[in-house]
Amino acid sequence: MNFEIVGEITNIEAIAVGRRIRILPLLLKRYRKHIKYQFAICVETDDSDLLTPRKIYRVLPDEDAKKSNYVRIIDNEGEDYLYPAGYFVFVEFPTEVEQALLRVSKEKQEKIKK
Hints:
CATH class of the domain at 36-113: Mainly Beta
Radius of gyration: 16 Å
Largest sheet: 5 strands, antiparallel
Number of strands: 5
Number of helices: 3
Distance between the termini: 42 Å
Order of helices and strands: HEEHEEEH
Shape: globular
Helix content: 25-40%
CATH superfamily of the domain at 36-113: SH3 Domains
CATH topology of the domain at 36-113: SH3 type barrels
Structural class: alpha+beta
Strand order of the largest sheet: 4-3-2-1-5
CATH architecture of the domain at 36-113: Roll
């Protein structure tokens, strides 16, 4: 069976568990380049330990939060949490910049977990 990507992939979700999902790493490796990540710059905070003004944060998809004017952000502690959308300005970056930001973010999260 063959599939053709006809548009931008914006979210990947596991829809199987157990042995059936064993190809997920292969799929991510093959199609991750089509995923468009979203980033935001913090412009306001009520807790400077969790959010830092002028810092770039990764936004995670959350349609329910969006309906309530909130966004799911990976904060300074490496956790995803809901914050008011008004705390951020949303930005788009070239793919090369996104990849660099994701790499740095992954390295930081690994340090936090240790």
